[in-house]
Amino acid sequence: MSLMKVLITLFILAQLSFCASLHIGMSANPSRINPILSTDSVSGELAQYIFNSLITYDENASIKPELAKSYRFLDNKTLLFTLRDDVFWSDGVKFGAQDVVFTYETIISPKVFTPYADSFKHIQKVEALDNLSIKVTYKYPYFAALETWSMGILPYHILKDEESIMTSSFNQNPIGTGAFILKDFSISSNFILEANKNYFLGAPKLERVIYHFAPDSASEFLMLKSGGLDIGSLTPLQVKRQLDEKFHKRFNIYETMSHSYSYVGFNLDLPKFKNARVREALSLAIDRQELIDLLLFGDGIICTGPFMPFTKAFNPEVEAPKRDIKRAKELLLEAGYDEKNPLKFELITNAGPRIYIAQILQQQLKEVNVHVSVRMMEWQAFLNTVVNPRRFEAIVMGWQMGLKPDAYSIWHSESAVIGGFNLVGYKNDEVDMLIKKAERTIDEEEFYAIYRHIFKLIKDDNPYLFLYIPKTLTAVKKEVFPIRPSIIGITHNILEWDKK
C-alpha cells in the first residue's frame, strides 16, 4: 500500500472515531451482497442490514411484519399482504408491490441459481392487486407459506433491465430499504455500513458499522484484545485459557447455543456404507463427549439428530448415543469386517478446526480396528472437487439448523442429486412420504409431530454421525448497549444499540 493510501486510510478512520461506530471482524470477503444470492455468512450478514423482507422474527422467534403492514390468510392456500406505505429504497425511490412480484419472478427464473428457490416452488402465482397489496396463491396448503417471505426483497427499478443478476454490479453496490447503506465494496478492505437516516423504522443510533477483515480466530482475537473491535467471536480455548483481567474489564462475554452442528457424512452409494450395521457400529465406536471436552473445553452438547434443540421439531425421546466398543465390534463382524479384513475409508475435510475432529475420530476408531486415513483440503477445492460432485467416502462438515425446519433439501431422496444438499445420497421411503405430508400440513401441532418422527427415523438410519452442537461465545465491549441475547442471535436489536 502506498504512503498516500495509508494516510487516506488513517484520515478516514480518524473521522470515523468521532461517530458512534461499531467495529466487527469478518473472516472472509463477501461474494454477493444480494439477499437471494448470498450463500456465505459474511454476505448474508451484510445483506440482512441492507435489505428487508415482508416478514421477520422478533427476539422470541415469533413472526412479525416488516415491509408488510399486515398479512392474513384468505383460505388455506391464499395469503394476502398489505404493504407499508412509508418505505423507500436508499436511492429515494418508493417501495411497492412491483418489487415483491419482481423478486419472486427472479428467484424462480431458470437463469438464476439460488439455494432459496425450493421455498418458492410451492407457489402457483404472485399478484400485485395494487401498489400496496400482494396476493400469493399456493398450489396446495403449505406449512411454511408465511416463513417463505422472510427473504429479502429486491428493487425492480434498479434490476428490471439487468441481463444477468448473477454477474450484476448490483451485487457489490446494493440498493436496499434497510437500516444501513453500504458505503463501498473493496476486496480485503474494511466494509463500511452507514446508517440510513430515512429508515422507515427509525434511523439506527449507531452511525456506522465497520467490518474489519480478520481471516482467522487468532487474528480476530488479537484485534479484540487491542481494542480494534467492539464485538467478536471467541473460541473455547481463548475463553478458558487466554483471557486476562484487563479483557474482562473491557468486555462482556455472552454464551448462546449455536444453530449449527458438526457431523461425519457417509457416501451412501458405496457398498460399505449402505450396510446399516457398519453405520451403527461407527456411531457406537466414537466418543462424542470426548470431542466436546477436547475441542470445546466442554462448551457444547451432543447432537442427537437433525433439528434444533429447544424447538418443537426436536425429539427429546431420542437419547444421545453412548460409546459401546463391544457392540461396535460385534456389528462390524456381522458386516464381514475383522482384524484380517478391517474396514478402511478416507475421511476428508477442509482446513481449520474440523481437521482436529477428523484426527480424534481416526484415533477413536482404531479401538474397533477401523482404519481411517485423513485428508485436509482448502475450502473451495473441498466443495468443488469433493463435496458437490460427491467424490468421497466420508466427510466432516457442519450444517445450519433453522427455527422451523424444512427437511426436503437435505433429507428427501429427490435432493440426492449432484449439486443438491442431500450430499450423502440418503434415501428412505417413509421419510420421503412424511416430508411431503408435512409440506401440506398447516396444523402446527400435527406438523411438529411429523417432524419429531422424521427426527427419530433419520437418527436410527445413521446416514450421518451427528457429533455435537457448539456454544457460541461472543465478546462485546461494555460501552455497547443494550445487549439482549436471543435464540435468533445477539445482534437482533442492533437498531437500538449505542455506544457510551
Sum this structure up briefly.
With 500 residues, this protein is α+β, with helices and mostly antiparallel strands. It is 30% helix and 23% strand. A hairpin with a 2-residue loop joins β4 (68-75) and β5 (78-83).
Task: Describe what you observe in this structure.
By secondary structure, the chain is α+β, with helices and mostly antiparallel strands. The chain folds into 3 domains: 157 residues, D-Maltodextrin-Binding Protein, domain 2 (3-Layer(aba) Sandwich), CATH 3.40.190; 103 residues, Dipeptide-binding Protein, domain 1 (Alpha-Beta Complex); 212 residues, Dipeptide-binding Protein, domain 3 (Roll). It contains 17 helices and 20 strands. The strands form 5 sheets. Strands 11, 12, 13, 14, 15, 16, 17 and 18 form an 8-stranded mixed beta sheet that branches. Strands 1-10-9-8 form a 4-stranded mixed beta sheet, covered by helices on one side. Strands 4-5-7-6 form a 4-stranded antiparallel beta sheet, covered by helices on one side. β2 and β3 form a beta hairpin. α10 packs antiparallel against α12. The radius of gyration is 24 Å and the shape is globular. The two termini are 34 Å apart. 37% of the residues are buried.
Major beta-sheet overview: 8 strands, mixed
Which geometry do the CA atoms define?
Answer: globular
CATH-assigned fold name of the largest domain: Dipeptide-binding Protein, domain 3
- Measured between the Cα atoms of the first and last residue, the distance is 34 Å
Kindly report the oligomeric state of this protein: single chain
Helix and strand content put the structural class at: alpha+beta
Q: Count the strands?
A: 20
Give the full name of the CATH homologous superfamily of the largest domain: Dipeptide-binding Protein, Domain 3
The helix fraction, in percent, is 25-40%
Number of helices: 17
